[in-house]
Amino acid sequence: MPKTLAEKIWNDHVVRSAEGEPDLLFIDLHLIHEVTSPQAFDGLRLSGRPLRRPDLTLATEDHNIPTTDLDKPIADIVSRTQVETLRRNAEEFGVRLYPMGNIEQGIVHVVGPQLGLTQPGMTIVCGDSHTSTHGAFGSLAFGIGTSEVEHVMATQTLPQAKPKIMAVEVVGDLPAGSTAKDLILALITQESTGGGQGYLVEYRGEAIQKLTMEERMTICNMSIEWGAKAGLIAPDETTFEFIKGKDHAPKGEAWDEAVAYWKSLVTDEGATFDKVVSLDATKVSPFVTWGTNPG
Length: 295
Description:
The chain is α/β, with parallel strands linked by helices. It has one domain: 2-Layer Sandwich (Aconitase, domain 3). The protein has ten helices and twelve strands. The protein has helices at about 5-10, 40-45, 75-95, 110-115, 145-155, 180-190, 205-210, 215-220, 235-245, 255-260, and strands at about 15, 25, 30, 55-60, 95-100, 125, 140-145, 155-160, 165-170, 200-205, 230, 275-280. The strands form three sheets. It has a five-stranded parallel β-sheet with strand order 5-4-3-6-7, sandwiched between helices. It has a four-stranded parallel β-sheet with strand order 11-10-9-12. The chain has a three-stranded antiparallel β-sheet with strand order 1-2-8.
């Protein structure tokens, strides 16, 4: 039976499936930061559980840290406490941590792509709503709450009800002066800030294929702004070229094997979506947004 990209990734990660229950998904990469992880680590500690897969867990300090005077103590006491707590937890539980001042430290949804940790076909979660950013690489990535963070820490799995799947067909080319940000804002304007609610969204079409990886990350990042659970784009040569040579990218023969698999991560001809939406890229004009509602 023909399958969508989202279905392929989902099905490949189902650990257990039972009628009337959510699927239990294996998680390939768990990204954590200083804001939503402290209570989860406390939960492990109170229950006497270890971190199930430290090798699939990565921490970075990014939400409540300064951008200047990194050698000085963080002025805000709450932010400082969060950062110090993350450092203690990372040391206790054996988590890789990229702290302030580390050359590999950065925004949690940028670190993964820049280091080659984010790869097609993966399931990726983080205690942050914009985890969908990683979907630009053909991965199934979504934000989770603190109790779910603890569940992943303890089991490297997550129970999830399978969402509906939507295709957004972007036809034509973006006009000169219009950007990926304008494209996603135009879509939100057309479909409303709740138009994607309950869906995994695959972005398709000529305009999408011509975007850089950074532009694709912008599109998938803002899937949340119209209510979607996640957004994803099928990997292609642009994706492979971006990942190639990154620190954690496959090398040598492993690279060839990975690319061969990644090329299979496309929606099959004849696959059925629960909903299909079309957007004319040629009519997308530059946006100026104000407030919180692009509609």
